[in-house]
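[Automated response] Your request has been received and processed.

Submitted sequence:
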Amino acid sequence: MKFIFASFFFLLAASSSAVDIINFDMFLFGDKIGVMTVTHEIKPDGTEVYSLESNSKAKFLWLNYVNYTRYDVAYKDGKLFSSVHKDTENGKTKRWTNITWDGIKYSVDSYKGKRSFLQQPDYSIVTIYFKDIKNVKKIFYEAEADFNEMKKADDPETWEFKSSDGNRNIYHFSNGKIKAMEFHVTLATIKMVRSN
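Generated structure:
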């Protein structure tokens, strides 16, 4: 009996620390330019930890672009607890945003300055890869620390939102699982296709 209990406890502990990983290939004008990996882990205390990391290299017109983006986000009791975002281009930090919850309000320290807000995000850019999107009306954009309206497209499994930095973001799902994205930026469209 002790052996069965010990085995059950071991399996429970192992499963609670399992990490879900989703990989994407990034394309610009049909050429593969990089990869993106998104992870989700539930810690033993119930904290949900998400990370998003993308690396890309592309030549556009006569310029070379090397981009690196990283999100590290934690949720407790279904609400955002902390978020760190950094975006670099050709080795230089393009934008960054740090968000922390103090029990009353969120403090934001970013490339735009410091501010605070009260509304607790429960759905955001990093959670879209692992949580059901069907009833989501607003999405929190960690990079800008703001909320954006989420709209359902004509396709019943496609959603989109226009972020405050002016980009149009489209997410394609299949049977509730994300399969591809389109990020319409100023001069081009970056497409991402799930590879696992």
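Summary generated for your ticket: The helical segments are 2-16. The chain has one domain: 18-194.
If you did not submit this request, please reply to this message.
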